[in-house]
Every structure is written in C-alpha cells, then in structure tokens.
C-alpha cells in the first residue's frame, strides 16, 4: 500500500509529460526490470509518455531473455530481484554489451550501489524515487551514450611505466596489460592529458563522461578502482592524488 500511495498522483503528472511528444515517435527502447508491479507500471507510463518504447521484466531471468530478444538501448534495473539478482544481471549484461544501465536501489543499500557502479552501471536512483526524475535520468544517460566522443588528441600517452594507447583503447603497466572498464579508461586518459591540474568530482563527471548531473560518488568509486590498478600502494597513491577540499589531481611519475 505504501508504494501505491507514493505514486497516487502519477496520472496527472504523466499527462503533463506527454504534452508535446509527437505521436508514433519513439525516443528509444528501454527495458524496465523490477519485481514490484506498481513500480513497473508507473515507470512504464512515465517513459512511454516521454516517447520511449518500453519492455518489462519482473525478475533476472526475464530480464536477460527480454534483453536478448529486444536489444534495448537502456536498462532500468532494480538490484533486489528474486532469483538472479540485479547485480548478477548487470554483470552478465556487461559481458555481452555496453548498454547503459540505470539502477534502482533502496535507501541504505550503499554497498550494492557501489558494487553496481563498479560493474559498469551508468547511474542510479534511490527508492522511493520521483518517476519524473527517473525519466530525466534515462534521457540524460541515453544522450551521453549516443554522443560521439571527440577523437583523442594524442594517440599514445606515457608516464613512466604506464602507457595508454588511445587508438587501441589499451593500457599497460610495466609491460602488462591493464583490465580497465570504459569509464576507468576514459578517466585515466583525461587525467593523463591534464597533468598537475586539480579537478572537482563535479568537473570530472561533466568533462570525462559528459554527465550534466549525477552522483559524485561515481567518481570516487572509479578513482579508487584506478588506484588499485596503477598505484604500487593504493592506500598511499603517488599518481592520482587527493586534493583535500577540491577533488583529484594526476601527478606524473617524474614529479613524484
């Protein structure tokens, strides 16, 4: 009943969002995965009002089957699912696709949220949430995913024993290839071409990934993951320095 009460005003708000959406025009194909029927229905109506074509799934198995059949452009994924949970669904999706994922998490599920971001989720919304905000986040994430990144300024970057080949999208440390996610690679590339400059988390969200809004903890998670892969002592980093009260700065090895 609490869920129903939370969204009891949905019809009027959906009507407002539908104004100005050209009939028969789809803004994209979205798969919504949640075991709560009310949540699925509300999210579906909001997204359809915003012009999206929506597929629904109530558990992990249905989600993976629907993804294979419909090939959506974005997945809205609840982490707490019966059977195959949302984290495992995200993990399996990342093995086969770079499709954007917006997670739905309950308040207080910080560990699951961080795990989802580490697996490659693009954004998250905490329950109870505003369906209108979720629709806006879906639009923002899809816009970023569809944007063509500018060509790299330098095809190969080197800092001591660290090498980044932007053309091949490969990174090596002391001759061994690093396993970096897309976002980790983009963050490292940005830091390498701006040595010695301090950036806030908000600036990194916008300039590295083009996020016009989002949770700044995403940056913290990816910085920590990068440190684990490129620093000799991640707890005492010499390359990616924390600038207290500001954010982060990349210090080339020659300066360390």
UniProtKB/TrEMBL annotation:
MF terms (GO), sorted A to Z: phosphorelay response regulator activity; transcription cis-regulatory region binding
A GO cellular-component term linked to this record: protein-DNA complex
Domain (Response regulatory) ranges: 29-142
Gene3D superfamilies noted in UniProt: 3.40.50.2300, 6.10.250.690, Winged helix-like DNA-binding domain superfamily/Winged helix DNA-binding domain
Record keyword Acetylation present: no
Keywords: DNA-binding, Phosphoprotein, Transcription, Transcription regulation, Two-component regulatory system
Recorded superkingdom: Bacteria
PTM-bearing positions, type 4-aspartylphosphate: 78
DNA-binding residues: 154-252
Pfam families membership: Response_reg, Trans_reg_C
GO BP annotation list: regulation of DNA-templated transcription
Domain OmpR/PhoB-type: 154-252
InterPro entries, alphabetized: CheY-like_superfamily (IPR011006), OmpR/PhoB-type_DNA-bd (IPR001867), Sig_transdc_resp-reg_receiver (IPR001789), WalR-like (IPR039420), WH-like_DNA-bd_sf (IPR036388)
PROSITE patterns: OMPR_PHOB, RESPONSE_REGULATORY
SUPFAM superfamilies according to UniProt: CheY-like
Name of protein: DNA-binding response OmpR family regulator
Organism lineage string: Bacteria, Bacillati, Actinomycetota, Actinomycetes, Pseudonocardiales
């Amino acid at each position: 009943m609490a869920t129903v009460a939370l969204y009891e005003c949905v019809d009027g708000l959906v009507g407002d969002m539908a104004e100005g959406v050209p009939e028969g025009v789809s803004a994209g194909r979205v798969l919504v995965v949640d075991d709560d029927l009310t949540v699925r229905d509300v999210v579906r109506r909001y997204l359809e009002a915003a012009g999206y074509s929506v597929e629904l799934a109530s558990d992990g198995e249905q989600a993976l089957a629907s993804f294979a059949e419909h090939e959506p452009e974005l997945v809205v994924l609840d982490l707490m699912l019966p059977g195959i949970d949302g984290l495992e669904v995200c993990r399996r999706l990342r093995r086969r696709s770079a499709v954007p994922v917006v997670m739905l998490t309950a308040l207080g599920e910080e560990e699951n949220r961080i795990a989802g971001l580490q697996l490659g989720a693009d954004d998250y919304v905490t329950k109870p949430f505003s369906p209108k905000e979720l629709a806006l986040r879906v639009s923002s994430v899809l816009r970023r995913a569809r944007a063509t990144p500018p060509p790299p300024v330098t095809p190969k970057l080197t800092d001591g024993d660290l090498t980044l080949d932007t053309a091949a999208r490969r990174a090596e440390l002391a001759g061994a290839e690093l396993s970096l996610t897309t976002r980790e690679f983009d963050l490292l590339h940005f830091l390498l071409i701006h040595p010695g400059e301090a950036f806030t988390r908000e600036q990194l969200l916008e300039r590295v990934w083009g996020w016009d809004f989002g949770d700044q903890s995403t940056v913290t998670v990816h910085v920590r993951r990068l440190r684990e892969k490129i620093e000799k002592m991640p707890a005492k980093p010499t390359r990616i320095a924390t600038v207290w009260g500001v954010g982060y700065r990349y210090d080339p090895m020659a300066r360390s």
